Amino acid sequence: MTTVKQLEQAVFDLQKTIRSLMMVVIALFVLTAGYIGYKEFYQSKTVAAQVVADAQQPPAEQFGLLKDYPKLDKNDHIKGDRSAKYLLIEYSDFECPFCKQFHDTAIQFLKEYGSEAALVYRHYPLAQIHSKATDEAIASECVASLGGNEAFWKFAEGLFAVTPSNDGLDQTLLPGLAVSAGVDQAAFENCFNQKETAKVVEDQFKSGVSFGVRGTPGSFLINTKNGKAVSIPGALPYEVFKQALDKIK
């Protein structure tokens, strides 16, 4: 015959077993969550490290000539003469610190070569590590759609001037930058809020992928008169950049 004391002991043992099982479940949950978190962290670091490596890699084989490279498009944002001898097509990300650095190199190139040089900006936002870059690219295209090529460049250069890079830009500054570029604020905000130019950004990104761009800046230096072209891997200093230029002369 089962006594009350035995029943109480059985209940106590059952409760103890349940508590032990709960502790095991909690431990498994914590371990699983920790693994997933570590995996995501590791993957994000791997992506970031690859982008940095791509941006800093030295020129391969002293800038081997390319058989396939992007061509100037009628809708491109170009700084300089469309018929210039030397064309630099840059796939870039507004939140990339290397892109901000390389922009100075590109401007130096334009100043030194004058009417012989032109720069094309194409979007390649690295959304995995720069969550704001896509929106900023869309904003720049809204400015372009409202104010044209000159307004785009004013906006782009204003953005590069104020962004700390790596998602550091306060995006409430975007309307002011648009107005400084010469477009109506209300029209800009409507375009931006509706993401009306998102497809332009997406198409340019896909173009970069098709030509082998992996990190930013990913650029191509082209002699439009003889058809020679080389890729520019990352934010090369101007002295090294000129070695690429010599290769296509």
Main-sheet strand order equals 1-3-2-4-5
Helix content: 55-70%
Number of separate domains: 2
- CATH topology of the largest domain: the name is Glutaredoxin
Number of helical segments? 7
| Mass-distribution shape | globular
> Class of the largest domain in CATH?
Alpha Beta
Q: Assess the beta-strand content as a share of residues.
A: 5-15%
So what's the oligomer here? single chain
CATH homologous superfamily placement of the largest domain: Glutaredoxin
Q: What is the tally of beta strands?
A: 5
- Summing up helix and strand content along with how strands pair, one would put the structural category as alpha+beta
Q: Give me the CATH architecture of the largest domain, please.
A: 3-Layer(aba) Sandwich
What composes the largest sheet? Answer: 5 strands, mixed
What's the N-to-C terminus distance? Answer: 104 Å
* Rg, alpha carbons: 27 Å
Low-confidence stretches: 29-61
- On the 0 to 100 scale, the average pLDDT is 84
What does this structure look like?
Helix 2 (97-113) links the parallel strand 2 and strand 3. With 249 residues, the chain is α+β, with helices and mostly antiparallel strands. It has a five-stranded mixed beta sheet. The chain contains seven helices and five strands. The protein has two domains: 1-50; 57-247, Glutaredoxin (3-Layer(aba) Sandwich), CATH 3.40.30.10. The protein has helices spanning 4-56, 97-113, 133-162, 174-180, 185-193, 198-210, 238-247; strands at 77-80, 86-92, 117-123, 218-223, 229-233.
Q: Can you give keywords for this protein?
A:
single chain; 249 residues; alpha+beta; Glutaredoxin; 2 domains; 5-stranded mixed beta sheet; 7 helices; 56% helix
